Amino acid sequence: MSLREGKPTYRFASCMNHLPVSFLDELFRISAVPGLISFAGGLPDASFFDLEGIKAAADRVFQEQGKNALQYTTTDGYLPLREEISKRYKRRLGLDINPDEIQIVNGSQQSLDLVAKILTNPGDTILIERPGYLGAIEAFSFYRPRFSGINPDKEGPDIEILKTRLFEDNPVFFYGIPNSQNPSGLTWSDKRRREVAEILSDTSCLFYEDDAFGELFFDGKPRQPVMRYNPEKTMLSGSFSKIIAPGLRTGWIRAPPEVLTAFNRAKQAADLHSNLFSQMILTEYIQTHDIDKNSRQMATEYEKRCKIMTDLVKDLLPDTIDHTRPVGGMFMMLTLPDSMHSMEVFHKGIKRGVAVMPGIPFYTDDGGCRTIRLNFSASSEEQIKTGMERLSKVFE
Amino acid sequence: MSLREGKPTYRFASCMNHLPVSFLDELFRISAVPGLISFAGGLPDASFFDLEGIKAAADRVFQEQGKNALQYTTTDGYLPLREEISKRYKRRLGLDINPDEIQIVNGSQQSLDLVAKILTNPGDTILIERPGYLGAIEAFSFYRPRFSGINPDKEGPDIEILKTRLFEDNPVFFYGIPNSQNPSGLTWSDKRRREVAEILSDTSCLFYEDDAFGELFFDGKPRQPVMRYNPEKTMLSGSFSKIIAPGLRTGWIRAPPEVLTAFNRAKQAADLHSNLFSQMILTEYIQTHDIDKNSRQMATEYEKRCKIMTDLVKDLLPDTIDHTRPVGGMFMMLTLPDSMHSMEVFHKGIKRGVAVMPGIPFYTDDGGCRTIRLNFSASSEEQIKTGMERLSKVFE
Prior knowledge:
The structure is a homodimer.
Chain A: H1 24-30, E1 37-38, H2 51-69, H3 79-93, E2 102-105, H4 108-119, E3 125-129, H5 134-141, E4 146-150, E5 152-153, E6 156-157, H6 159-169, E7 173-176, H7 190-201, E8 206-210, H8 226-229, E9 234-239, E10 251-254, H9 257-271, H10 276-288, H11 291-316, E11 322-323, E12 331-335, H12 342-352, E13 354-355, E14 357-358, E15 371-375, H13 381-394
Helix pairs in contact in A: 2-10, 4-5, 4-9, 6-7, 11-13, 12-13
Family (chains A, B): Belongs to the class-I pyridoxal-phosphate-dependent aminotransferase family.
Cofactor (chains A, B): pyridoxal 5'-phosphate
Protein name (chains A, B): Aspartate aminotransferase
């Protein structure tokens, strides 16, 4: 039983030495500090979770197929749920997506991990919007890619930069969030979507279209995904986390058959299958409730909060601070004057009782010192007012 | 929106070209063929799932903390659940394991993926029992290791082979299932556990101890894990899949702090956190039910089925067929005479209406042609009798 003297040393895979600083878990912890108003996280407002409806759905699952719900199942996911997802694409967007083209995952985050896993060799280039979603940067980093950031203009990713990068870097995929991007809050124009789809046709680069916020447009109107214009070159991921409940950890990905086969294989190795009980609850819930109505109510409320926050940026913060104008989703971005650093705002904000998200983890280069992400979905109007007042003190 | 002519070609990561043939999903599908008796799968008997008790637990979670259960949470897992796991280690095995040493995962399979992810560079050696668990081989393969198989003797992995491999191959970890191994059904002696723990002290190789079956010993007596004898060099994984319900996809891993930190980082990137609703249901269920009693009843029933199957191997199959003598778990292994191939038995069995699991996917070399895995947990006594009669026809 001898334990040799001294502390053991552990050897880790090289990827562990190439990870960015992690902010995600820190954010969840900050959000639990009493009295702190947090614009730093990315939580949906739990008051919109339909507890009663979800409980009724769970009751029915227990009653009608309890033992099945608790047993192992196949990797691809519960077929009736994939059918509901397929029907919703048809109804909302007029898209013909067969249930067989869909794989269920544990929320969008798992798609990020598995797409990178099946497509990326160390040193391969991944294109990503600049700024890009930090959860994606985190997931992709484990596969040791070279990141190449694409700056946006008002319509979406700069098309000339994109062209140059596509042909110079031979990237394996381009990751983007065309609907209410996280962190910027920007939405791509339809024209830009078509242009991106068109350009990809000439390359062996896939587009990874992350659509977590497409059902939260303030005007209630859906936007066509890039996938519509080039399905063979696009993987499209979606999630119930923002519109029903994140705790159920259920999302999906639609991909071209050959890609989906590889993805399914990786999913099986990763955790066999997603939580079947949750998949059945969601299916039952979708079949018996108007979930579009709920997400419209949510979007209307988020719009109100976004407007209050935008107005307060203008009223309370220095004129030198610019902000994006979201048309949906949960986030907006501020650009600071050169005299201020985003980490300084973050630390001073915490002291004042308000948390903002510094831009740094959204950049794969040394960017983010002049940008801040604000979340407007998780705070009430009162909290937004108080929080913005506290934030204004930071700039005095 | 031009789609260029011809089928697009996709580029995949190199690991995709190095995966073994997959059997897992195929098995779940076979298990749905009507009339077929399957000894090929690895399902627990769903009649032991305590539907009523789990529903009552779910009701309470909805009632008392519904909104929290449906919201995002931290990566490490629901603290009260980790506390229950810690308490059970103390009560069952006298082990002091702090809840902080435990990370919740989506069933043991996710631990397999993430451990390999944080420890393995392409070309690194992973030691694994020969035969070894196919789900582990599958998960590890994505990280392109070199596998090195350790044959067992009656007490566990051959200690001389292990020593040689440890010093010649400098492996990153050794993966094994000391309790009722899948696929062999073998259980390591306590002496061997101590020897393995001792040997590892002199190396930088970690032991990955997969304990999915430790609560299903027929005699109801727990065995001390290797971890007890060398906690700094051992990662110990467990699961509720075999003793409560696999559909809830909840397992855990206990690892030394430095390793757990890396693991937690990988878990966050992989899917943020495991299903919180299921974690809360399990916590409530464990706090209000005697789950040890249920697993003892399960083990007693499995023992009966194992004995019937063992007797029928002797009575119905040729004398040239040898079998292991499990003292717990869900599997036994048959060794065929040189004149028969395991794939032949598999294909002929399907035609006769009985599915067995050929040994091939449990070997990382060209082994497995003379071995077959039989599952005895998922079939009733009657099904075992009928299935073994059908199997006997294959050998006529």
